[in-house]
Amino acid sequence: MDLNRRAKRVGLTAIAFALLLRLYDAGVFRWAAEQLTAPDTAAFLLFLETGRREREAEGFDFSFLPESAAPAFAAQTLPETDSESAPETEPPTSSERDAVSVYYACSLRPDLDKLLSLPLTLDLSGEAPTVLILHTHTTESYTKAGEDYVEVSDYRTLDENYNMLSIGAEVARRLEAGGVTAIQDRSLHDYPSYNGSYSDARKSIRKYLAEYPTIRLVLDLHRDAADTPSGQLRTLASTGAGDCAQLMLVMGSSASGRKHPDWEQNLSLALKLQAVLERNDPGITRSTVLRAQRFNQDLSPGCLLVEVGAAGNTHAEALRAADALAEGILSLAAENSP
After folding, report:
1. Among 12, 79, 270, 301, which is most exposed with the fewest C-beta within 10 angstroms?
2. DSSP codes joined into one string, 193-230
3. For 57-101, what is each residue's pLDDT tens digit?
4. Does the structure show a pLDDT above 90 at 253?
5. What are phi and psi of 228, to 5 degrees?
6. C-alpha angle 175-179-180 in degrees, rounded to nearest 5
């Protein structure tokens, strides 16, 4: 009997070993390691383990919860057109190409020259709203520099004079001064429930797009956050207005497998805006980040997520960055209006 048991164990061990070899040859273990070490997975696991809600975890798109994922993982590409029907495009200038940089936080590697060459019509004219400003993480705030307000947690406040609502209001004010009608959604999408913020913001965007079909540009304004040896990340650029927080465009894609047919058009817009911002104020931007999540940018081909500084910046530095962002949008619209 013992001999039979040993024979069975040896046989089962041999079968298991053969299966492991087959899985190894198929690359299953390599794939699993890549998934477990991916930035988004690490951020999500950090959030589950510690409840930490800084930028590392906020980059994870919790809006997947009420949605069903697409069955296939495939990169979306721009449609091919014949030479007779293709729109005329101009190659990007060397200054444009030199001004943009992209950090890839997903598997996609789009052709940046092609995206910069795509035609752009950005009509922000008219009395009806053409720009929607909102804040998925509305309560985000900055490092205090003598201001007196109550924080609901570190670098978060319900005080509208110091959270992201104040940054959006400044962008709207500068756009209005430049002749562009902007509307700001003042909902607290991340309070009292943080985890449903992207889903809640999605409802707001859909409501405004249905109510105002004239909207051409949707700006989701955040502030970044990351621990550094000296404290919270502080991004700085030198402008004519003084020390200024940097701007960072965070763009979604179809890499997660969810439907996002216009992600390349959105990225094209972001790159062109980055080029204009750098031309106006060299050093004002950080690298544009391309991620696998959609960040609700699938709702319109003119959706941008913009990080206005970081938690280590002061509110005054963020306000100067908001002004620079608005000026960049006005410049881009002026150069690409019909």
Report:
1. 79
2. -STTHHHHHHHHHHHHHHH-TT--EEEEEEEE--EETT
3. 334 443 333 332 222 222 333 333 333 333 445 667 767 888 999
4. yes
5. -130, 165
6. 55
Q: In this structure, which amino acid lies at residue 155? A: Y
pLDDT, tens only, 161-176: 999 999 999 999 999 9
Do residues 63 and 83 make contact, with C-beta atoms less than 8 angstroms apart? no
Question: What are 118's two structure tokens?
Answer: 């795509």
Q: Are 219 and 304 in contact (CB under 8 A)?
A: yes
Q: 267-325 pLDDT, tens per residue?
A: 999 999 999 999 999 999 999 999 999 999 999 999 999 999 999 999 999 999 999 99
Q: Which residue has the tokens 């959604």?
A: 185
Which among 254, 219, 217, 268 is positioned nearest to 76, based on CA atoms? 254
CA neighbor of 274 nearest in space, from 289, 261, 285, 259: 285
> What's the pLDDT at 250?
97
Question: Which residues are paired to 290 by β-bridges?
Answer: 104, 251
Residue recorded with tokens 């009608």 = 181
Q: Cα(300)–Cα(134) distance, rounded to whole angstroms?
A: 14
Q: Which of 278, 296, 298 is nearest to 287 (CA)?
A: 278
Looking at residue 95, its amino acid is S
